[in-house]
Amino acid sequence: MTKNNLKESWSKLLAGHSYILACHQRPDGDTLGSALALAHMLRRMGKDVVVISEDGVPENYTFIPESETVISQTDRRDFDIGVLVDSEGIKRIGTAGEAISSAKSTACIDHHVPNGEFGDIRVVDKTLSSTAEVMVELFDANDVEIDKTAATQLLTGLISDTGAFRFANTTSRTFEIAAYLQSLGAKPSIIAREVYESRPLRAAKLLGRALMSLETDKSGRVLWATITGNDLAELGATDADTDSIVNHVTAVKGPKVAILFREARPDSIRISLRSRDGVDVNQIAKVFGGGVHVAAAGCHYDGSLEDAKRDVVAEVLKWMES
Known about the structure:
By secondary structure, this protein is of the alpha/beta class. The protein is 39% helix and 18% strand. The protein contains 12 helices and 11 strands. The strands form 2 sheets. The chain has a 6-stranded mixed sheet, sandwiched between helices. The chain has a 5-stranded parallel sheet with strand order 2-1-3-4-5. Helix 1 crosses helix 4, helix 5 packs antiparallel against helix 6 (172-183) and helix 5 (148-161) crosses helix 7 (188-196). The chain is globular, with a radius of gyration of 19 Å.
């Protein structure tokens, strides 16, 4: 993204009066923080803005300023501009897709490579750590002043998508932006605590179930954990409580690929894949209609939990052998 591109995109974004900003399903800190920061800036300019997340706001992200303004559904179809925020395809926003598509103009702001060419306005840079980082560059190029509220929203996105600066997508520019946002009043220690150390008891118990379920293939190259529908029901947990569990699976020394299988409902399996040492789990996820990053991807499997484990693990081993 050049400065001229960012200026042109911002000018087009400001052409509307009413906006709907959509977060992806099972929202994380990046999609929520980035969408809320953009909404905050637009509202300061007198714009009418709605932020929508089909799955609401997970408990550990309710600390984000203005998160209470997020809605889960809308019947409005009169928006000037519909924006996908950190949601690389219209399919990832669920029921919000109709409202976004009905807008007079559409936009995509992301650090993933979007599926297809969605968006009349496109602000996309896959070299950046997070959509929050994209948003900072957009604001900076257009001399938009970031206040403490937006700084906190954006630093939440940055910390969330870099695993508190532990992931390989963290660059020197990421640290520069983090320092800049901190200087504006954002508190990284508080954000990290809320994101990673404020789980409800049921989520901690669910992690225990997942770790007790760990399995590996004969070679030890692939490790996976399973969360069943019964686990969720018995603990009173939700799918949102599975967030970050795959990172605990990834922390086990030795395997090249870590997988979390979770039974959202019978014959509907959500799958998270993580890798190290160059294994491209994005390509594996694409086989099952998913994707996102080389080292972190996800997909969905229509079928039983046992079939999902068999087929996905087999695909991982096939990719490794090729």
